[in-house]
Amino acid sequence: MNPDLLKLYSEFDYLYRDIGLICRDCRDHDCEGYVWLLKDETESLLDIDVQIVEINDNTSFIHSFEEEGDVVRVDKLKPPCRLREAGLCTIYKNRPLVCRMYPVGLVTDKDDVVVALHQDCGYARRLNKSDKQLFFQRVLGILRRTPKALLREWLESYLLVDRLSAFPEGLNTFEVISSLKVILNERR
Ligand code: SF4
Questions:
Q1: Quick one: CA dihedral 48, 155, 35, 175, positive or negative?
Q2: Which of 9, 16, 26, 31 should be mutated for ligand 1, with most atoms under 8 A from CB?
Q3: C-beta separation of 4 from 28 below 8 A
Q4: Total domain count for the chain?
Q5: Whose CA is nearest to atom 2 of ligand 1?
Q6: What is the rounded average pLDDT for all residues in the chain?
Q7: 26, 28, 37, 162: which could form a disulfide with 41 (CB 3.0–4.6 Å)?
Q8: Mutate which of 16, 30, 35 to test ligand 1's pocket (most atoms within 8 Å of Cβ)?
Q9: Residue 158: what are its φ and ψ, rounded to 5°?
Q10: 75: domain range?
Q11: pLDDT at 78 > cutoff 90
């Protein structure tokens, strides 16, 4: 596994070190949707026998899709992740970046790809103005410390996923933290 990706994992784990207190009481739907993977993550999850679905030979997801005979129904929206059992992630130590970062994630906003805070998460909704500013600064700090090559890989993987999928019905409510291109361009 790429050591820069492991460092990014640990930085987000630290950022969310207290989120469990809020998740514990949350009754919202969780762990639904397309859990997409970076290349290193695909390999390490295959090593622990997690089922993966690959589309177009370039985009991988944790396999939580419905199956009808030999057909994998990738068109059904918001499949609940098969790796969640009794409210817990069964691969918690190995969960991918997209899970570790949530409620932060990439979003296509007009013609740009932005790092955003999803408002469908109780933790995000509870942040008051000053806590949110601090949270945004911490997220930006993490991304500024992350090597550009990894940020580029993250962006390229996201763009492949974005071409395949649309946000499910309903509002995608988020707050923009920063354009990812701005973060990439301000770095050498
Ligand atoms: S891998 Fe774990 S954290 Fe990620 S969606 Fe599945 S159950 Fe949830």
A1: positive
A2: 31
A3: no
A4: 1
A5: 89
A6: 91
A7: 37
A8: 35
A9: -60, -45
A10: 3-185
A11: no
Cα 41 to Cα 38, 46, 122, distances in angstroms = 5, 8, 27
Specify the amino acid at residue 147.
P
Residue 74 CB partners (closer than 8 Å, separation 6+): 53, 55, 61, 65, 164
- 94 neighbors 48 (Cβ within 8 angstroms): yes
Give the percent of the chain with pLDDT over 90. 65
Cα 47 to the center of its chain, rounded Å: 21
Reported as a single tens digit per residue, the pLDDT across 110-168 is: 889 999 999 988 899 999 999 999 999 999 999 999 999 999 999 999 999 998 876 65
Q: Is the CB of 83 under 6 A from ligand 1?
A: yes
* CA 188 to ligand 1 centroid distance, Å: 34
Only one residue has tokens 């997220």, namely 139
Residue 15 has pLDDT above 60, yes or no: yes
Cβ contacts of 183 within 8 Å, gap of 6 or more: 115, 140, 143, 144, 151
Pocket test for ligand 1, best of 32, 51, 53, 83 (most atoms within 8 A of CB): 83
